[in-house]
Design goal:
mainly beta, Immunoglobulin-like, 5-stranded mixed beta sheet, 5 helices, globular, disordered N terminus
Length: about 750
Amino acid sequence: MRRLIKILSFGLFFILLLVFNVSAQACTDNERILRLSSTSNAHGEIYNGLGNYGTQICFPNLFPGYSIGANPHDCIIPNEGAEPTNLVLRLSDDTNAHAQAPDYTGTAYPIDICYGSLICVSSTSACPSGQTEVVSLFSDTNSNLETVGTNNYDTRICCTASTNPNILNAKWKYYDGSEIPNNDPPINVCRNNYIIASAQTVGLNGQQITFRFLDDDLGSDDEIIRLNANVVNNRAEIALNLGDSAVQTIIQGELGGTEGDDLELLFEAIAPSDTERSYQVTYQNNSALCSFEPPQANIEAPVHRGVYFANTEIPFTSGCTSRIGPVTNEWTITPQNGQPFTRTESTFNHTFTSPGQVNVKLKCTDLDGRFDVNESQMLVVASPYVLAYINEPRLNEITYRVPPVSGPYFPNEFSFNASDSFAVDSSGCTLVCIGGNCPIETENSLLSCGASGGPIPITPQAGGYSSLFFNWTFLDSDWTSEWSSFETGNGIYSGSVQYDDMSNTLNDKRIIVNVRYTNGASAQFEREFTLGRCLNNGNTYYASQTESYSTNEANDKCKGGDGSAGTADDCCATGLQCLHGTTANPLYSCQIPSGGMVTECEDFRNQSECNGNTNPAIPQASYGGNPPACTTLRCQWSSTSNSCGLNVTTYQSSSTTGACSSGPGAIITSSCSYTTSTSECVNGRKTISYSTTGGVACQRNPVIVPCGSLSFELGFFTLREFLLSILLIGAIYFVFNIRKEIKNNEK
């Protein structure tokens, strides 16, 4: 009898276990919500964790008859920064984790456990009617877990599952996939733009939904067009081409009258069981009112500084992006030992039959004609081969350093860096780094190397850069050689540049490095760049390659990169100063100073202005040849002649490092003072001549420097502004000639 009771008791316990612990049965990854280490007092683990937690919480056991759909573990986030709508709970880690209730308001655990269309809350009593308990917690955070029916823990996670598919989170995106914010007033879009309508879905994977684009009107909305899109991974998206002829016909018919020159665009994402409405963007018929970031050029392949094998297919993949629509791709591929060629596809393969360095440039251009350029260097290997690359200055860089409040300003030095250069030796499938900064592996291989065409290692070798020789050459705007230097080391070289080297147009300087391995293998790389942001003879300040400003307008741009007027990087035409504007428009612009224009030290009429000069154009590179970096120039008042003149001081430099002595007690090797005379401009250049009482050691030859310019970049002017400009130019001419006559009379 006792034995029968034991058997019946065990059977009853087993039945109860099946009834109350159905959620702990085995299931597939797609069906599993999460894993537990045991049925009670358990730690949690994500659904596809290490797999050593045997207690499984399975959706079909808890919600029989409900469909699962694809990717049920994806979190559905209705808006940027919002909580997932299908959050079950949170874990402190992927495994061996404590849990946190979905509605806990403190610091959130990092691992969101989401599932399908579940909507979950915590309850300290039995789950209300219509909700199903999924798991229980000891507390709402930092808690162990237990399965349904164990009844040791009071915080229950109660969930409902939806059988009806739905749409949510309808929002606009730019063409590059970034979200258009829901602003007030709405963001402007224009005629040639593409914009993306995007909506999140539940239970609609693999189906098609309709996007209905509307003009929001008082009364009924006007339909512009309907487009269909497939739902993939719980999201549907479609691009609307605002320049499409059919779309434009309807849009232009809507414009005018009470609509004016803009429309309030929105869309509806429509499924048989649900409709979700988006927020508005504004269609602007005036394209001047739409301004977006330029495109971004990105080369996804080949990998920069990648090592590839000859006679293998090498992929070329564009990653260009634009906010307003498709871009055009223009590849320029220049093998060191072959002819350049171009391609226009976004993706293609090419096989190089000859080894050597290959320069890859990609230009991507958007619908507005704006463009961006990127580059990648690759090495097709033989034995041995060198890759040369200039890290600094970078592609399209404006090389610029904000100077100190007081001198010295010129000459200056800029660092040229080629430390990414390297040399490798290859013998069949064996590659060895023999100098420089080599990658750790190749990007592909020959099939005979046994890696199925994949990467193979590059063996490092001691010695660093000792086997590489770097030959640097700097060229000015006329592409004549300014200086060259041959050195070993780490590929970083500092070269002197002077005021008359400063750029007047973008990319008018060139630096060339030739990198040679000891056995004679070499490669050469050239970089065009810009020295300084103050171009066009001081009339234009460049914040970037594509962003320029007239310094003659009240816009504060004449202050230069340091944002302070009266310092050495002010940007003005020769003779003008960066001065405060009017009360009505207090922004700074380049103006004629109250005491008249100053173009050289002699123009300063008192000691404080002379000795306090911070304009690097005064004196304008008044030195000849290539003076050492320890030479500084400044305007200096002479109490003997009671006038301002030019002073040139040379400080002692180290014979080993070339560094200048500076600060109090610095050793001065020479100090000479001059008065100067300046010739008329000839082809944009003028000659400065010197006179001195400093003896033979201070004698200097005349030098030629840029003239500077007083020409203004006139835009679209009103009649009043045009007349004021004519008067200003006349005043400048009058001041120049009066000053010249006074000087001539004094002579």
